[in-house]
Amino acid sequence: MKLCKGLTVASIGAVITACQILGSALPGQAVILSTGIVEAPGVVDVNSGQVGNLDVSTGIFTPFIKGGLPFTDLALNDTGELFAITYNRQLYSINPSSGSSTFIGGGDNTTVYFGLGFDKNNGLYTTDLNGNFYSVNESTGSASLIANTGLSFISDIVFDPRINRFFGLSSIVGGSDSTLFSVDLNGAATPIGNVGSADVLGLAYDNGTLYAYTNDRRQLIINETTGAGVFDKNITGITGEIFGAASSISEAKSVPEPTTLAGTISAIFASSLMKLKRTSKHKHKLSHK
Fold first, then answer.
1. 176 and 195 in contact (C-beta within 8 Å)?
2. Which residue of 33, 117, 224, 268 has the smallest Cβ count within 10 Å?
């Protein structure tokens, strides 16, 4: 009790904050994947979709939707709401707790839609087979063309708030390689470099690291400067192929490691204890004068 009284409000607040950060820094499942079964080139089983959490540290996929629509991509806003899109740009909201999806609106058979992502202001964007970049009304599902990026088959986009731009993948199915690029909110795209792997269809962040996912269930670590991808691990627990990935905006920023946080907490307590001892010693001297 004496220790608690000796701690300042600021110290207690710092400890609480550190503990909260520690909890978010522990290994978890920050990446969400969508999958489906391709029966033949261009033909997907309409009841084969899975959506679930991925633990990037183990490569284990745990679905919370099974036998649903095969969503081509997912997007997670900063309030934790999950959205998904189909090939013909039908927008859905997803409830991970119940494993249900709700149709919002949209629908367009003139092209095939793939990428979906939120910016730091919760603006929703999508991309299509022809390299077009759109803004999306998340309440109605309607899409408005912003610009053509000059790239083909944009398979996924993920936002990096540190540079206020999306990273994207241009990945022609059956091609020899995939390309990482960045794209401004006005649709201006800049190629960065080849990933070194074909059919890379998903992009997501976890604790500041950019990951990419291939349709044959491999997890790659992407160098944001060069675009090069390095094999990390195989993903297990998936039936079918990986179609898309999502992560929250906050995952683009790295957080301190748990050991560092533990040291920070220890330092706070040590500092508070020293202050308490000095105060007690000073009071003791005064009482003997």
1. no
2. 224
281: enclosing H helix or E strand: helix 258-287
The 10 Å CB-count burial string (b at 16+, else e) for 120-148 is eeeebbbbbbebbbbbbebeebbbeebbe
Its sign, for the CA torsion 211, 216, 218, 220, is negative
Which residue type is seen at 79? T
SS3 284: helix
Q: Is the pLDDT of residue 19 over 50?
A: no
Distance from C-alpha of 99 to C-alpha of 94, rounded to nearest angstrom: 7
Which DSSP helix (H) or strand (E) runs through 119? Answer: none
For residue 23, the enclosing domain spans 1-27+262-276
Type of residue found at 202: G
Q: Could you tell me which residues come within 8 angstroms of residue 223 by beta carbon, excluding any fewer than 6 positions away? A: 229, 230
Residue 178: is it exposed, middle or buried by C-beta count within 10 angstroms (0-12/13-18/19+)?
buried
Both 11 and 142 in a single domain?
A: no
Residue with tokens 């029966």: 39
Cβ–Cβ < 8 Å for 244, 201: yes
The CATH number of whichever domain residue 167 belongs to comes to 2.120.10.30
Whether the predicted pLDDT of 120 surpasses 70: yes
Q: How far is CA 19 from the centre of its chain?
A: 23
